[in-house]
Design brief:
Helix content: 55-70%
Order of helices and strands: HHHHHH
Oligomer: single chain
Number of helices: 6
Shape: extended
């Protein structure tokens, strides 16, 4: 046990505390038995799996969670410092090779129409960071909205717009003159020290 006060440690060793823990375990096990099951076919017995499922409907052994975030499409390599790392790596490489062979066989069995749909689906869903995929999705939506807009001819330049542009050019010329005067003053100030 972690560092507990003497009173807390005595409570954790008491018969009442053990009775509460037993009741909780019984309730949890009853809920587990009555709750939903994974249902995947187990490798050893061939019977349906009886483990509780995750959010995707399968347990941690038969599906678990799918990798997410930036590198969801890349294989996860075992930690080289973990025990049995070389065995895990060999198994991972063998699984990847088996998956590549199954993918190649599946692609070879496709009709030209199915292959075209497959390639179009993959071209529209390129891997990358979630932010990049979201940006591409928003760009596609904006492009679709822009295509729906009617073509409007450009408005002829107005006299007011021409006057504003002339005023902007005049301000830019004045700003350039001020910068030139400031540069000359700086040069003069530095020449005193030389």
């Amino acid at each position: 046990m972690r560092d507990l006060s003497p009173a807390r440690a005595a409570w954790c060793r008491s018969a009442r505390w053990r009775d509460i823990a037993r009741q909780h375990c019984r309730r949890m096990n009853a809920e587990r038995v009555a709750g939903p099951k994974c249902g995947a076919k187990t490798r050893v017995t061939g019977e349906p799996c009886r483990n509780p499922p995750k959010a995707n409907g399968r347990c941690r052994l038969h599906g678990g969670s799918t990798p997410k975030a930036k590198d969801w499409h890349k294989p996860r390599w075992p930690d080289r410092d973990s025990p049995g790392a070389m065995d895990k790596l060999a198994a991972k490489l063998k699984d990847l090779e088996r998956a590549a062979e199954k993918r190649a066989a599946r692609l070879a069995a496709m009709s030209p129409d199915e292959r075209a749909r497959h390639d179009a689906w993959h071209a529209a869903r390129k891997p990358g960071s979630p932010a990049e995929r979201a940006r591409v999705r928003v760009d596609r939506q904006h492009a679709a909205e822009a295509r729906k807009l009617p073509d409007r001819p450009a408005a002829p330049p107005s006299a007011e717009l021409a006057e504003i542009e002339h005023h902007i050019e005049e301000l830019r010329r004045q700003a350039a003159e001020i910068e030139a005067r400031q540069d000359a003053a700086r040069q003069k100030a530095w020449s005193v020290f030389e």
